């Protein structure tokens, strides 16, 4: 019972991270399902994709109502991300890919994601001004659409193979290459994560057994967190949260590596 309560409290935290900063949900979901709820890695990855996909879909609603979703940019990014997610699930199904290998790859992705979050959280006003200048320069380039498609494919493969939604990579790409503001990038990333995660989840259905009741209860708990997080974005600058969250992700990544 205590394990169930702790796991579902952490599921609310998954939702908060998705609602506030547009990412981190899958990065938290897999370790919670493996180390708190005691599931196997492949099952945890598949279930996390289902949970995060549904929760992201719910989280899109308040962002959409606030006008923070760019459908045009999402329509460019999402198709290759979905293709990548399917390819990632097929790679994970190869006989020589063990659960330990997937968790080690997952931990490495966590370390990379934490560095990106910490770096973004440390940006000064001067750095943010330079970022806007770089954004304006890149937005004029003709190859922007190709770069968005390429990054979408890469993020999708990561989603399918190790179960990360990829918000940590999607948001910077939307800001720099898509030329949209941070709040809009967060809302848009949720729509992309939805399609990405659901595609990955469907790709796993044929070769894993799922605990549907646990997945449903986790989805409900995380959805409450997402709606709360999306509401709080009216009052909280997500940039101020990224640094602390990045250090937390770094600690969890190191823990997973030590365990395997």
TrEMBL record:
Localization, UniProt: Cell membrane; Membrane
Protein keywords: Cell membrane, Membrane, Transmembrane, Transmembrane helix
Residues that span the membrane, as ranges: 39-61, 73-94, 100-118, 146-179, 185-205, 212-232, 244-259
Membrane association type: Multi-pass membrane protein
Keyword Ion transport assigned: no
Family annotation (InterPro entries): TM_pro_TauE-like, TSUP/Inactive_protease-like
Family matches, as Pfam families: TauE
Domain of life, per lineage: Bacteria
GO cellular component: plasma membrane
Family: Belongs to the 4-toluene sulfonate uptake permease (TSUP) (TC 2.A.102) family.
Protein name (database record): Probable membrane transporter protein
Species whose genome carries this gene: Crocosphaera chwakensis CCY0110
Lineage: Bacteria, Bacillati, Cyanobacteriota, Cyanophyceae, Oscillatoriophycideae
């Amino acid at each position: 019972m205590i394990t169930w309560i702790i796991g579902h409290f952490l599921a609310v935290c998954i939702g908060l991270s998705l609602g506030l900063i547009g990412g981190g949900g899958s990065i938290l979901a897999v370790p919670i399902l493996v180390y708190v709820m005691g599931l196997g890695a492949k099952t945890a990855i598949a279930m996390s994709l289902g949970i995060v996909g549904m929760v992201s879909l719910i989280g899109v609603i308040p962002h959409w109502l606030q006008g923070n979703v760019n459908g045009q940019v999402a329509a460019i990014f999402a198709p290759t991300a979905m293709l990548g997610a399917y390819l990632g699930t097929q790679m994970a199904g190869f006989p020589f890919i063990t659960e330990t290998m997937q968790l080690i790859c997952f931990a490495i992705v966590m370390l990379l994601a934490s560095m990106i979050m910490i770096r973004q959280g440390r940006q000064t006003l001067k750095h943010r001004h330079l970022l806007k200048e770089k954004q304006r320069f890149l937005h004029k380039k003709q190859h922007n659409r190709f770069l968005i498609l390429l990054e979408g494919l890469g993020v999708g493969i990561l989603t399918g193979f190790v179960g990360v939604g990829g918000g940590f990579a999607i948001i910077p790409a939307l800001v720099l290459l898509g030329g949209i503001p941070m709040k809009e990038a967060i809302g848009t990333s949720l729509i992309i994560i939805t399609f990405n995660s659901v595609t990955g989840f469907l790709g796993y259905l044929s070769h894993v057994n799922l605990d549907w009741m646990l997945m449903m209860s986790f989805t409900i708990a995380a959805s409450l967190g997402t709606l709360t997080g999306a509401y709080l974005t009216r009052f909280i600058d997500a940039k101020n949260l990224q640094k602390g969250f990045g250090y937390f992700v770094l600690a969890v990544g190191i823990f997973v590596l030590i365990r395997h």
